[in-house]
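User: Let's play a game. I give you a shape written as tokens, and you guess the letters that built it. Ready? Here's round one.
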């Protein structure tokens, strides 16, 4: 037998499962059980934000309005319209030395209800939807769906809705044509096989008894909504109602090493970032976690990363920390800050090997992925991390025993994507993209490796702490 020689100068990303001992394996599974439950219970940005606030308050974080001044060790959070959130722990060093920021997003691709969603056709009542974010429309038909969100009445009162998650609750669904009559459909391209206007959700089928009623099934649904939730048709106009997959996040594979569920992008980074700041002890720099909304549609809007929300909050921190506001101080805090743009990368899929660049792909189980740049076609749209910052992060992870890998998103000419990195980089901060790999990204049933989830948490925690 010949002994295989290892070249000590060669680089090979490690598999986190191979590297870990029995103790760590137990921690990995326990951490992921909590994550899976959190993901099952929080399928919208509103649900995520309110669950995060509950966890933060339980850990001693207080709403920024409760502080008259801020000092080392203080824990603070600010919510933005129930859909986005910033949490911070004031660090050892002076605030103007900069922040350590982890920025992620809590919105996921889904189907939103149209402003006038309800109609009747073919002896069924249906909801019209408008998809949100990058979805492959054909993936959303013939599976159990749930309805989540909030309805705001014209007096300002709110009705929270969640139907389809509990065993005894009904689910909703979108139909597809039977193969016997699907000859023409099957010849269409996959992006045309199911159109946006065909993503109509079936919500009822029993007509009202009233002989004279027009649209008897629609009427029955309206009666039900009135008696169960006390809202009428016009109230749909002031509502954030989302259709999401009705299934739970579950273990996948004989060995239970993977987690399959809806919305890993980007709640896997948001959850691990949240846990990382909850567990931070005595951070050197002020730790900040940003849980943002609207990333899947370009980060615009008041709750997206392009809004002034974050700047406003840094101004608030400066004001409370120095007991004086100065724009120069705000700018110093900004330009000295360092950011992990916490978002997912695409996991190599052997069934679609042709779109991945083998030597620069992320693999399930090889730890958190550091991406020097995102973008598409010649790095367009990429903020790109500097060699210096890459070196700093690599060193930090190596010293802390974090398992990590590096990747681009697919082959150069296949496409690409972006994250919130560029918007934070605009503040003249050092930013790098950093999060776990996801298989079947943007599908209703995304998959991550439990080992990667855990090492993402470790990575975020050490980044905040040091
Ligand atoms: Mn994302
Ligand atoms: Mn995404």
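Assistant: Ready! My guess for every position:
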């Amino acid at each position: 037998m010949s002994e295989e020689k290892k070249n000590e100068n060669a680089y090979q990303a490690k598999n986190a499962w191979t590297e870990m001992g029995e103790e760590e394996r137990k921690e990995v599974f326990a951490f992921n059980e909590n994550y899976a439950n959190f993901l099952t219970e929080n399928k919208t940005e509103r649900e995520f934000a309110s669950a995060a606030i509950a966890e933060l308050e339980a850990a001693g974080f207080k709403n920024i309005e409760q502080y008259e001044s801020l000092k080392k060790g203080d824990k603070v959070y600010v919510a933005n319209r129930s859909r986005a959130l910033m949490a911070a722990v004031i660090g050892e060093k002076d605030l103007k030395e900069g922040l350590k920021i982890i920025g992620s997003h809590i919105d996921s691709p889904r189907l939103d209800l149209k402003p006038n969603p309800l109609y009747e056709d073919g002896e069924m009542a249906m909801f019209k939807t408008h998809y949100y974010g990058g979805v492959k429309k054909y993936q959303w038909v013939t599976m159990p769906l749930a309805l989540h969100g909030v309805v705001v009445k014209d007096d300002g009162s709110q009705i929270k809705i969640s139907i389809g998650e509990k065993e005894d609750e009904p689910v909703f669904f979108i139909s597809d044509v039977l193969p016997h009559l699907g000859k023409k459909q099957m010849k269409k391209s996959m992006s045309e096989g199911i159109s946006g206007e065909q993503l109509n959700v079936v919500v009822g089928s029993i007509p009202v008894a009233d002989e004279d009623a027009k649209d008897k099934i629609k009427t029955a649904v309206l009666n039900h909504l009135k008696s169960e939730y006390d809202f009428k048709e016009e109230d749909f106009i002031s509502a954030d109602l989302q259709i999401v997959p009705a299934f739970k996040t579950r273990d996948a594979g004989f060995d239970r090493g993977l987690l399959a569920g809806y919305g890993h992008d980007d709640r896997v980074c948001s959850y691990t970032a949240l846990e990382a700041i909850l567990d931070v002890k005595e951070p050197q720099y002020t730790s900040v976690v940003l849980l943002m909304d609207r990333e899947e549609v370009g980060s615009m809007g008041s709750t997206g990363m392009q809004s002034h929300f974050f700047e406003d909050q840094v101004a608030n921190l400066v004001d409370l920390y120095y007991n004086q506001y100065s724009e120069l101080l705000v700018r110093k805090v900004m330009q000295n800050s360092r950011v992990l743009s916490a978002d997912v990368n695409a996991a190599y899929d052997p069934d679609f090997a042709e779109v991945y660049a083998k030597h620069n792909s992320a693999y399930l189980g090889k730890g958190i992925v550091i991406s020097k740049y995102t973008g598409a076609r010649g790095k367009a749209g990429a903020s790109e991390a500097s060699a210096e910052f890459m070196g700093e992060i690599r060193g930090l992870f190596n010293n802390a025993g974090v398992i990590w890998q590096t990747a681009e998103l697919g082959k150069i000419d296949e496409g690409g994507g972006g994250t919130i990195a560029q918007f934070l980089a605009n503040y003249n901060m050092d930013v790098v993209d950093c999060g776990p790999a996801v298989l079947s990204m943007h599908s209703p049933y995304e998959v991550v490796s439990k080992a990667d989830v855990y090492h993402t948490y470790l990575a975020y925690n050490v980044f905040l702490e040091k």
